[in-house]
Known about the structure:
Blueprint: H1 4-14, H2 25-29, E1 35-53, E2 56-62, H3 64-70, E3 71-83, E4 86-105, E5 109-131, E6 134-151, E7 155-175, E8 180-191, E9 193-206, E10 211-224, E11 231-247
Antiparallel strand pairs: 1-2, 1-3, 1-11, 3-4, 4-5, 5-6, 6-7, 7-8, 8-9, 9-10, 10-11
Amino acid sequence: MRSSWGGALVAVALGLVALPAHLTAQDFRDDKGWRFAATPWMWLINLDGDLTLFGREADVEIDTGEILDALEFAWMSHLEVGKGNVGFFIEPIIAKLGSDGTVQVPGVGPTEAEVDIDQVMLDLGGAYRVAGPFEVVGGARYFSLDLTTQLEGIGEESRDSGWWNGFVGGRIRSDFADRWGVLLHGDVGFGESESNYMTMGVLQYRFSPRWGVDFGYKWLHDEIDPEGRRVDWTSDWFGGVVGVTIRR
Length: 248
């Protein structure tokens, strides 16, 4: 049996992932010591994929509106410090989603169901400016998923899973006007996922040396290795990104 309802909700939580660094080319050009940047942000995500959970396969096709309907709590931010050609960043993401509705249970029929998801992701990484606007990036990315499903008259079941991936890639940061800059980022992941890669392009506008806004587009692909796990999924999520950056 294929169910789009339960699979879509689970994939919503898995879709809340990292947005890399938001220091600009201007930060390096004017660098005289330690630099700091903090960016609260959001990703207006759409998601396509295939997910198998509790022995059932689901086609996942969800848009931004459906994600916002299921969202109960979220915290997403990016912090980066650096000096000279070197930078380090940390990015915690916490999301809690919940939904209820009617699902079709084999041998039972229409059944009221509640689904609660707790998703945590943590990015730890670094960047090194090689030449001009080009930097190499790398680090580790951790995902944690806790899923609870309750079916009326049947019972409750909980599943949790966590996995690590490393990533390596590059990014280009360049100013093209007095207040405008561009960030291009791409990386490839490796580890407990069978396949993982990300690309992103962001325009940056600085209101002042300390304040700015970032907006652009991001695409991420992930395919988890199902061996020894209760979750098997392949996903592509994509959409606009927007954030406000505070620099010092």
